[in-house]
Each structure stands twice: as structure tokens, then as C-alpha cells.
Hints:
The complex is a heterodimer of chains A (364) and B (593). Chain A has two domains: 32-154 and 278-316, Periplasmic binding protein-like II (D-Maltodextrin-Binding Protein, domain 2); 156-276 and 332-362, 3-Layer(aba) Sandwich (D-Maltodextrin-Binding Protein, domain 2). In chain A, 44% of the residues lie in helices and 18% in strands. Chain A has 13 helices and twelve strands. Chain A has helices spanning 2-26, 32-37, 43-54, 65-79, 92-104, 118-124, 198-209, 211-222, 233-241, 253-261, 290-301, 303-311, 343-362, and strands at 56-61, 84-89, 112-115, 128-129, 151-163, 188-191, 227-229, 247-252, 266-269, 274-284, 315-316, 338-341. In chain A, strand 1 (56-61), helix 4 and strand 2 form a beta-alpha-beta unit. In chain A, helix 3 (43-54) packs across helix 11. The two termini of chain B are 33 Å apart. Chain B has a single domain, classed as MetI-like fold, CATH 1.10.3720.10. In chain B, strands 1-2 form a two-stranded antiparallel sheet. The longest helix of chain B is centred in the N-terminal third of the chain and has 34 residues, at 31-64. Chain B is an all-alpha fold and 593 residues long.
Amino acid sequence: MSLVSQRLSAFCILFALGAGIGLVPSSAAATVEEIALMNRADRQKVLIEGAKKEGKISWYTTLIVDQVVRPVKDAFEKEYPFLQVEFFRGNAERLVQKMLAEYQAKRYDVDIIDGTVSPTMVRRAGYLQRFYSPVLAEYPADLKDPQGYWGTTNLYFFATGYNTKMVKLNEIPKTYEDLLNPRWKGQMMWSTSRGSGAPIFVGTILNTMGQEAGKTYLQRLKAQNIAKSTASNRQVLDLTIAGEYPLALQIFNHHAYISKTAGAPVDWMPHEPVTATIQTIALAKNSPHPHAAMLLIDFAMSEKGQKVFQQSNYLPSHPKVPAKQIDLKPGGGKFKRAYYINPDAQYDKGNEWVDYFNNVFVKQ
Amino acid sequence: MAKQTSSGAYNLPIKSADTSAAPGVFRFRSLLRFDAATGVMIGVSLVTAYLVLPPLYSVIQTSLFTTKLTGEIDEFTFRYYQDLIRELQVVGPFLNTIYFSAGSALFATLLGGSIAWVVTRTDTPLRGLGYFTAFASFGTPFILYTIGWLLLLGKAGPVNFWLKTILDQPGPVINIYSLWGMIFIESLLWSPFVFLMLAAAFRSMDPSLEEASAVCGARVWQTMRRVSLRLMLPAFFSVVLLIFIRSFESFEIPALVGLPGDIRVLTTSIYLDAQKLPPRYGSAGAFSVLLMFVVAGTLYLYFRVTREGDRFHTITGKGYRPALIHLGRWRYLAGAGLLAYALVLLVLPFLIILWASLLPFYMQPSIEALSRFTAKNYVTAIHFPKITDSIKNSILLGLGSASAVMALTLLASWLLVRTKMRGRWLLDLLTTLPLLFPGIVMGLAILRFYLFVPIPVYGTLWILLIAFVTRYIPYGIRYTHSGLLQLHKELEEAAYTAGATWSNCMRRIVLPLVTPSFLGGWAFIFLLSAKELSMSVLLVSPQTPVVSVAIFELWENAQVGELAAFGVIWTVILVSIAVIYYLFARRYGVQQS
């Protein structure tokens, strides 16, 4: 009897162990890579189970907290009430420096990082994890990484902002060529910001007009004496609203739109092809909460999540989700062609554009 | 002119002070004190070295090595220095930098010094206004202040509009986007710093020297020029050195004011070239290493000049209570000057910021704009995430870093001024170096250091405190150093003779007598740290938000109105603190002198 019971208990222990071993690989012991690339029918269920144990997500973001990060956080937490989204906001450079320093010290706090170029920098350092998300299938090729390192949450389109009190209706520059009109000499301002100012204007021109024609154009533009400022393009636009400069080059079209709706004497005019940058979202290599992180990435790119971006006056990247103000996106009536600056191109070519801008427009 | 007599007279008392303190007396008086001095020297040097050396190492390393994308050191290179030398050979930006720094240092010293003299030494009405203006002006976030001036003096701004109308000119009369515009704004920004420092020095002036000059028939102006100002040499040196260096390496004003007008300085070139990926901080590092040599040389010379520190003692055992100079009718003019200063430094920029904060988008001041007033921007500002935590953290950090810096630098200055140890100037250099560290390099250095060193401060407020204390040591040392130089050692010697211990003497003699400098420095650092940006952005964690980072986020992305609303709230908070502090300081500081 005692022998039987002993065997029985031993069997029970073995069974429990076996069950434990059997359970472990399916969830807890899975690597970040396995979770990120998981592509099976019960993916959502596994992610939710894992996320329940993780409880939170740490998101390093370049998005504006008040405008969009909080709305996304709130909508996501409503969807998954057992998760808590923590975020750290910074500009691309600081964000990446912080993450790289942490990884060097083997401190893995971050789950998700976003930005127009920051994920690419982290990827080059080798600290990104490729991921699979069923939502990616809904996106066109130029809005996702072929290897699965990043997806897209929203888009930025650049335009010329003008003060409607200072610029007459028939004067509004419609094309890049129109900017060369002597009328605008000394009347334009742009930001020196690498990712959202003059350098990517240079990049667009060189890539869409061709090197030779582009350089000729830029040399002629140089003669227009465009005022430069290290302020962001939002401030450059505000100076135009204040009447300091009638034209603000390379500003975000939605900024001009927001100010215009508030009653400011300002509007925007696209020049085709319109420069566009894309806000990418990516998973950290040693994400401490990979299940929860994947749920957030899925959500941010899904139609439901994209509506949150839309309602926050951001320009959703999902092809089926239009902008709240429809003409801010291509095909919305105001412009058709956009030149999307791929994050890798911005990273690889950006230095050349910065140098070109400095040599031609700054050092005279 | 009674030149001959007065020049003979002002020399006399100083000479006698010289002879009263033979160099050997100090060491002899008390062995007990010597031990304390050694202990303090070791302690202060260790703390300072611990704070300053890691970032110093990092700055030098940054300037000599390329880094991999991950931040690891890659190859040794002189490239950054070669680039810098090439940059220096371009005459335009180099000369602009010199004009800008020298102009700002001179104009700020002149402005702040005049105000300090009027406030501390004359019977001008409205003197309290000087202090209020200085404290309150520190409260305004730096970037916002600059934007305020651009809106005021810009092409479409009200000043140009009125001038255009009055002078009947077709175009704008003032061009703020010019070298003069840069110097004007930079000097205004620094003048309160000069004011606080020189006010402390003026207040501790030995009146007997000035009285002697007056007795000999010298006029007020002559006395000031030949007696007062010469006695203040250390204080003047400190402010000119600090402002020159800060302007030399400053970036914001040249970028926001100079660049649109095509006025380039060295830092704008370095900044624009450094917009590379992966980020390169080598040029910034090389630039600051170069500046270090310049500053080391200057400090060494300065030390040789002030080695005979006795010449600058103005607080002696003979009792000091600087007499107020009666300006007669001129005092109304001086009072008007104070009002004008307050108006230009504080009221005008604040009003334009307040104006901007009440509008849905920026409009030039007009009656029409009044109808658009809205509280929307304030609603946005108040709903800024974790705003209460940010304010609490910033105030805590300000209190902590101001107190720690002033305590540390008071001891360091005491060592520099009182002891005769060789190589003291190295301690002075060490405490001045953080002034030259580029914010981002220093921030990264501290970030990496505490990620690797097993001291659990990463992600807490402590790492910010350490960074701030390191950053602001140079300001503390200049305040306490010039304050202590004025203090004659005979007072301390009297204490020791009466049997006081070292700590007793520090607490009951030295500290009360340097209170004006100490409090001035404390307030300055408190307010500076509330604004610190370049390191905070790297070192804060989601759990430890601070105000300046919130301002940075708004600066990068928000409309002027939202930034302005936030700035108004923050200014009101800081000014309230400043008023409380002022009342406190008046009780413990001003009444004693």
C-alpha cells in the first residue's frame, strides 16, 4: 500500500513536472524573438495570457504626449485593462542615446521605441527585434520594413506655410520654381532641423529633380537668402503667423491647418512632390514585456488605433483611415504625389544633405 | 582736480592692511586649525574630484576618439581638433564669437554693476526693486525669454511698429537679428547674475577706505573709480570671466537671434555640422578642451594677481557698515534708471509672453486681438502630464543642488583664500571646469557612469542632483571666492585666539559675514537648476519628471501660446519662491550689514 502510494505520489510529481515543462516553452520561457515572430492561429490568446503576467509596457516615444501618446495609452488600456503603459518622451537623439547607454550597461527597460529615424539608429546598433504582426498585411510596401523591423503609425507631410495677410492670393507660390520669384528674396524662413527642416528639403530636391538639376535649383534658391533658425518648424510657422516672415518653408501641413482653424492668418500650399516622413514603431531586442509590447504595436497600427491618431489630428498611415481633415493626406484634393523619405535613406543620406545644406545655405 | 591727493590717500589704508598680516602668522596661530584645514582639503578635493573627473575624462575621450553607434569607443583621431582649427581659421565666425562674448561680458557687467552700486550704496528710492527684478527675471524660462524679445523687437513687432510711425520710416528701424541684437539679449540675461554678485561685493565694502578718499577731497565718481572699483577686482574678474566663457560657448542666442541674420559664431557652426547620424560629439568635445586651456591660463594668471589677497580685504575687524552715498537730486534719475531696468529686463518680456499666452495664436498687440483672449493655452498647460510631480521635483532639486553647491564651494573657496597650500589653483581650475563641459557630453558621461557603477541612483532624482551639483559648482565657487576674498583673516584669528574651534569659527564668523555672497549664489543656482535642460533630458526617468523637460517638449512641438502659458505659470511659481526667499534673505542678510 505504502509502496503504491509512494509510486503514486512520485508519479504525481513527475506528472506535475512534466506538465510544468510542457507549459514553460509555450509561454514563460519563450524568447523575445519567438514571441515577436509568432504567427499562429492562437497568437492573440497567447499574447494576452503573457501580457497579463507582464502587466506593463515601457514606451520610449518621440510623439507628443499631450496630443497623441495619452489618447493612445487611454484607448489601449481600455482595450486591455490589465496593462499599464509607461512612457518616456524625448527627441530622437536623446531617446536613442539613452536606450543605447542602457543596453551597453545591460539594463533592459525599454519595450517599444518610435520615431522617424530613431528606430533605424537602434537597429543599426543591433538592438531591435524583428516582429510579425497580422496588421502589417494591410499596409503598402513603402510603409513597412521588408525585414519586419518596423511598422508605421503616422505620416508627416511638408508644405510652405504663408501669412494670408501678407501674401496675396495670386502670389501664393505653388511650385518649387515659384519659390525662386524675386518677390520672396529675404522673405522666407526655415528650420535647420535635420529630420524636419531644410536638410530633408535638400534631400527631396536632389532625389526627385536629379542630382544636376537639383543642385542648380538649390543654388538659385540660395540666392533668395532664406533666413535660418534652429527653432522647430512649429516655431518658424509661428513667426510667420506673427508677421516676421511671409513664408515658412518646410513646415508640417497639419500645423498650418490647426492654426488656421483657430483663426490665424495662415494657410499651407504643397509643392509636388511633397516631402513626407514616416513615424515608425519598433520592438526592442531585449524587451522585458514582449507580449504586452506586441499587443500595443498591433493596436497602434490597427484601424482602431489609427482612428485614435486621426482624432488627435495626426495623419494616420493606415491606407483605409483618412485624415480628420481629408486634404492633409495625398489624394485628399490638395496634392497627389508624395516623396516618402524612408528611415534608412534618411539615416544613410541624411549626413550628405546636412553637409550640403551647411555648405550652400549657411556658409557663404 | 584733486588727483594727486586722492591717489595718495587711497593707497594708504590698503598698505596698512598689507603690513598687518604677515604671511607666517596664519600657520603659527593654531595647530588645531591646521588639522581641520587638511581634513577639509582632503574632503573637498575628493568630493570635487569625484564629481568633476568622470565627465572631464569623458569630454577629453570624446574629443580624441570616434565612437561606434552603440557609444563604444572606436578609433583614436585628431580629426575633431583639425576640424576645429580649420573652423578657427575662418575669420568671420571667430571674430563674431569674440565680439559677441566680449560685448556681452562688458555690457552685462556695466549694466548689472551700475544697478548693484545704485541699489547697495546710494540713497536712491525704490532700491528693493533691484533685487526683485533680478530674482524674478531668473524665473522666466530662458528660451521663452528670447522668443519674447524676438516678438518685441522683430520686424513686425510693436517696437519697430512704433518707431516706424514716430520716425516716419518705410521699413523696420531695429534689426534684432544682428550682432547687436545678440549682445543686447545675452547681456540682459546675464545682468541679474552680475547684479547679485557685485551687490554682495559692494555691500561688504570697507567704508573707511572710501571715507578716507572723500576726506581727501575726491568726488563720488573719483572715489568709485579709484577706490571702490579697484577693491572689487576679484568680483569683477569673476563675472567677466564667467560671462565671457558662457557667451563664448553659448548656443541658444546665436542660433535663435544670430543665425536668421546670418551672423555665425563658432558654436553655430559646430552645432550645424554635428547634426549627423550617428551623433558625433567630438567637435563639441574638442571645442571645450580648447577652452579649458584658455581658462586654465586665465585662472593661473588671476591667481598670481590675487595672490596678495590681502589687498582686497574690505571686511576687517574694525567694524564695517558701508555708508550710503547721498546722490542729492541725482537720486531721482537713479531711481528712474532702476525702473527702466525693471521695465526692460522683466516687465516688457513678461508682458509679451503673457500676451501670447492669452491668444489662440500669436497676434501683434492690438485692440482687435483683445477680443480673441482665451484661457485655452492655460488649460493645456495645466493638463500637461505629471505637472505637479514635475514642479515638486524641480523645486526639490533646486533646493538640494543650491545648498550642496554652496556648502561645497564655500569650503573650497575658504581653502583657496585662506590656506597657502601649493597648487591650490588646481582646485580652482577643477571647480571651474564643469562650466566648459558641453551639456550633452556631460549628461552622457554621467548617464554611462551610473549605469556601470553599482550605485543605485539611475532613474532617481539623485542622479539629477549629482549632475546639477557638478554643473553649478563653477557659479558657486565664483560667488563664495569673491565673497571670502573680502573677508580679512584677522576676524578668524580673533576667534581662534578666543579659543574657538574651526567649525565654530566657520559657523559663527565666516558664514554670517559672507551671507550676502552665499545667499546670492544660492538663489542663482536654485533658479538655474530649475531651468537646466541639456542634461535633464537624458537623466530623467518616467518616474522623475522635471519642469525644464516639459518646457523642452513644449518648445520643440507646441505653439508659442502654449509654451507661453506654461512659462507664465512657472514664472509665477518661481517669483513667489523668490519673494519668500527675498524676505528671508533681508532678515538674515541685509540687516546684518
